[in-house]
Amino acid sequence: MTEHIIDPSIVEAENARRAADLNVDYDTLGERLDRRGIDINAIKAKVADFSVAVPSWGVGTGGTRFARFPGLGEPRDIFDKIEDCAVIAQLTQATKTVSLHIPWDKADPNRLKQAASRFNLGFDAMNSNTFSDAKGQLQSYKFGSLSHADAATRQQAIEHNLECIEIGKTLGSRALTVWIGDGSNFPGQVNFARQFEHYLDSMKAVYAALPDDWRVYTEHKMYEPAFYSTVVQDWGTNYIIARELGEKAMCLVDLGHHAPNVNIEMIVSRLAQFGKLGGFHFNDSKYGDDDLDAGAIDPYRLFLVFNELVDIETRDNDFRPAHMLDQSHNVTDPIESLMLSASDVQRAYAQALLVDRAGLKAAQEGNDALAATQALRLAYRTDVEPILAMARLEQGGAIDVLATYRAAGYRAKVADIRPAVEGGSGGIV
Ligand SMILES: [Mn+2]
Fold first, then answer.
1. 128 pairs with which residues across the strands?
2. Which residues of 11-50 are buried (b: 16+ CB within 10 A; e: fewer)?
3. How far is the CA of 290 from the centre of ligand 1 (A)?
């Protein structure tokens, strides 16, 4: 039986206050969609099936390179983090898995599995960390990891990734996500080709250890921590890597890892068209890799990404990209941010399901630019909240996740048992 962290009677009481209004809103929206030839229950079923993974590091308070301001009741270890993730899953019913970062979340894999299964949580992709030095490691990653000039350092980074796969096997994970911070800060500091060759050779060694039913996701990022050149800097390089490695290698698109104004939805389409779109890290950004909450700055862009995903889904039944949130919360309660972000990702999916695909195609084929873009806007402007809320309610979640979470007083309760963390240190989580 699934254990609940928030007392289900609180969720029920909160839902009881809102259920009558929700029923009216749902029926009204159902009538309006029916006029457009859309079955609201079919959309709700797809939304209910949709899940986005919560990153273990997301439940801790983030920071910037200037400072970190700890929040109340921060998780002390991975087991606290799993409990926070369970709260998010209970109320949203949209986050059925947790994604771990090694070595941050290192613990006895069997204990981890047991802790997650109490809440019926599974494990999503394993994330390796070779962008900072772990305590006691022999070689430093200051000048790179998988692409380092020194063979012993590269070997250490390879072995770390192999360890992540081993831990993941016990947990029931089926993927490894590799993001490296390797690059350079000065023109001339590295030889681009030699560095990339080292990276590819290292990744081939990691790839060789992947179980048959696993995937490896490589994640590109334009800049930071390297500020002059980055080894895996854009989707083109990422595509080359996936092609070089083989069938189990796919590209991961983090929405914040592109130059401003880049057409990310088109990148999504290109990678999918050639079978290399593996998954997403959802977040939002204004100036760079800001790691803001998904849908907080440009919800229309999030919708346009999902418009592509639904388009691909209608053509390819086996299309199963991995969905994960990847954000840093500096001024909010991370649980609140993650709940609302999961909901916003689900919202973009629901809105994209409402696009009149036949009408859109006809407009495109007829060069009717305005009718085509109107087809998208009509879907985007539809308030799908009643669909999301009904999907949550029917699965035991909360109609209003934020109000219910606050009514339950979870943060105050854990603040009593989790001692305050020292502030002042810089760095993001
Ligand atoms: Mn990411």
1. 102
2. beebbeebeeebeebbeebbeebeeeebebeebbebbbeb
3. 11
DSSP class of residue 420 equals P
Centroid of ligand 1 to alpha carbon of 28 (angstroms): 39
Query: Could you tell me the distance, in angstroms and rounded to a whole number, from the CA of residue 404 to the centre of ligand 1?
Result: 29
Task: Please determine, for residue 153, whether its predicted confidence score (pLDDT) is greater than 60.
Answer: yes
The Cα 5–Cα 239 span in angstroms is: 42
| Beta carbons of 353 and 303 less than 8 angstroms apart | no
The DSSP H or E segment spanning 167 is helix 151-171
Ligand 1 centroid to residue 219 C-alpha, Å: 7
- Going across the sheet that includes 122-128, the strands are 54-55, 97-102, 122-128, 175-178, 215-219, 249-254, 277-282, 322-325
pLDDT in tens, 241-294: 999 999 999 999 999 999 999 999 999 999 999 999 999 999 999 999 999 999
Cα torsion angle, 312, 246, 205, 185, sign: negative
Q: Would you state the structure tokens that stand for residue 180, as one six-digit string?
A: 């490296």
CA–chain centroid gap for 170, Å, is 22
